[in-house]
Amino acid sequence: MQDLTLVMAQLDPLVGDIPGNAARAIEAVREARIEHGADIVVFPELFLSGYPPEDLLLRPSMETRLREARALMASKIARDVLVIIGYPGVREGRCYNLAGVLYNGQWEGEYAKQALPNYQVFDEQRYFTPGTEPFVYEHKGAKLGILICEDLWDGAPVKAATAAGAEILITLNASPYHQDKPTERLRLLELHAQDVNRPIVYVNTIGGQDELVFDGGSCCVNASGQIQVLAPYWQAGLMPIQFLQTSATIWEPQPGEIDPEVEPEESLYCALVTGLRDYVNKSGFDGVVLGLSGGIDSALSLAIAVDALGPQRVQAVMMPYHYTADISKQDAAEQANMLGVHYEIMPIEPMVEAFMGTLAESFAGTERDTTEENLQSRCRGVLLMAISNKKGLMVLTTGNKSEMAVGYATLYGDMVGGFNAIKDVYKTWVYRLARWRNTQSPAIPERVIERPPSAELAPDQQDSDSLPDYDTLDAILLSYIEGDMSAEAIIAAGFDAEDVYKVVKLVDRCEYKRRQAPIGVRVTPRGFGRDRRYPIVNGWQPGD
Known about the structure:
Largest sheet: 7 strands, mixed
Strand order of the largest sheet: 5-4-3-2-1-14-15
Radius of gyration: 26 Å
Number of strands: 20
């Protein structure tokens, strides 16, 4: 009987940094060998290029850089460790999503991903040719069947690898997070392991890339689908699995570390923190600046920013006008002090009045409307962008998904910025996250959570003046956006027809705004952007 130590390298590559990613792989193998006595080290999907590389795959120099990186790995990595790592590759004029096997200084073989996803955020059929054959590699008596991400969801490649003699299935993954996705993955692993009666090793990437965020959760299930090892979510690191050969063809993963299950609020909050941290750091910004209004959205955004970057890299600015309530000013100052960020107060009255004076002749004979409200927001945007330019701080916008869906945001005003941590978070979840965050340590004044939400752009203004309550609004939006239900189907489910038609019309006609909004962390299956692509100009009617 033999045993094997397989180490899952749950790491955060940088897209396009092929030499850097190769160096990370070399160091990880060295550490896995020293710390865990690794026989095998497995990296995530497309690790050398980072995921998703998108149109970088069309660059002629991509293949040259990958070959150089693979040659460096072959020369630097210890010869007694088997390395399985993902990268793209051009073979006979076609580009494939590959998993390569490196041992004894030689690249011993490659597996080409067979199931190429082309839905939600995935666009792999634009770039890759699907593989057609299973790949089984024998190492120290164990027959390893290699798969890549969607192969597992498709299922057919799993059976093909098993039929080809695989005793342990190893899948390389770059599986983006969305709410409930970790549970979906574990259930899928359980079902496939039971179906083919084989243990499965699942290695996932970690970290943020543009709007995508990867939660890790690399794991191993036995042939009965029971979790034997589960790496921490939202943490990079190396996680070992011990395999024991119990018969000629059976390898049993031994029970190891299992990270405790986290509650939904914690998982979502970690996704937002990770996405913001990696976007700012990988983009090279010194930090962030945001407008702190005393409301719930900017309060949650500030807490996320501080947890992601530290208070010394966060600046908050209160920009009051006539309609800004005293309690908003008090709550903003209290939170800034609570979190230890740099805080400034910049009244916008002189700016607004100067603009109104300049516009007075053009506006003569017209009634006051949202134009004047939007002007307040746009003055604030100018101040934040000036601070951004001067200090090298990225402007963090603070609109939630409910408001972005119905267009309750001002172009070139509160939509000004480079990134939005809560862009894909519905308003009801904003409150849930704020309450959860305060259970960890004081971060958001309780009054901010309890008081009715308002944009404070007009006297005594509240969001409920023009929208259904947020419980109702979010339920309608979930049905229409996430569920693709028609207005009639939503009404038939028990919602007020007037509310439904109003919300649906707002969603449809505000696509032009969303196209101009900053990107943000994608945490739902239908995030605005990659997931949900609607024409800006169209004649579709809400009842269709």
